[in-house]
What we know:
Elements: H1 7-36, E1 40-41, H2 53-73, H3 85-108, E2 110-122, E3 125-131, H4 146-159, E4 165-171, E5 175-182, H5 185-193, H6 207-217, E6 225-231, H7 242-249, E7 253-259, E8 265-266, E9 268-269, E10 274-275, E11 285-286, H8 290-299, E12 303-307, H9 315-324, E13 329-339, H10 342-365
Parallel strand pairs: 3-4, 3-6, 6-7, 7-12
Antiparallel strand pairs: 1-2, 2-13, 4-5, 8-11, 9-10
Amino acid sequence: MNKRFPHTFINWFKVFWTVELLSIILVLIGYQYLDKNGMIFKNPEALYLLFLFPFLYLLFFKRLYDQTQLFENSPQLLTTGNKSYLRVFNLKFIFLKNIFFSLIIALSNPIYGTKKVDVISKDGEIMICLDISNSMNVKDIGDESRLEVSKRILNSIINKLVGQKVGICLFAADGFVQIPPTRDYQSIKVLLSDVETTYLSRQGTNIAEALKLAMGSFSKGKLPKSILLITDGENHMTQNASIYELIKKNKVLLIAMGIGSETGGPVPDISNSTLKFDQNGKLVISKLNAEFVQKLADQSKGKFMRIDSAYPNLSSLLTEINLRSKGYFRNLKVEVKQSLVEYPVYFGFVFFILFLIIPVLKLFKK
């Protein structure tokens, strides 16, 4: 045959694109349905690999054209057991193409809906008492303020907890419970990010009041309870010793974290965005009162930790908290986003098996 395109090639071209277009339509319908119902791709950049398909088709049709032209120019070849060659050739490409397509979808990690999973969670309650007096604005830990470092430390601790409830109490001369103990870590971190020293107008450091509020926020059960106190100990008010006796009596672990440096730094005047001066015109310098914070821990048989680094090692603190929850476990039903990655993997595996079986079936047919 001297035609530009062999008759057999035209026939296979029509059959192939009929099947291919039907497949594409079904895939698009499925995608539209899932997309409208909240499906997302965790790694959408992997879908760019689909742009390789036009090149695969070109290579396939070039090879198919060569094969059909060979058989039409040499009809005797069809009598030597090659009658099913073109059918097998087309099927192998379809299977190989579907394997490649499945791998791309699997790499993109489609996520659709949620599922409930069992999570072993440690039980316990932790109240964070965070000093937000004006001295916490002092930048004596690198180029960051004590409050900025405190918030980062607390975020790091929360990220490494395994189910304990966490609450927040903010204090200066007064105090208030910003959020009671909860397992909604994301909400806690969002609230922490917005904390500023302007939340409370009356200045001072009333630690006893903060601890009293924290103790009142705990549940009545016998779960392990801890208080994380972060303060620089500056301008502290008269302490009520009874709160420390109450902490000891209820076996609550107080971890007193003294934040700041020994040299200290100038206190900013938040009212006019300048530095603060005393009545004699001297610059007000704030230093960590480590002895006072240490005394707080000793009074309640707790732990003291000095924070004078922007990125302190918190491993011992986390170990202390988690050890207190030893033996207190609970099974939680947690809803998590459901990954569909296994389905394209199974789909691709089926076509891989078919790709391997076709030559074997051909041998049996002979």
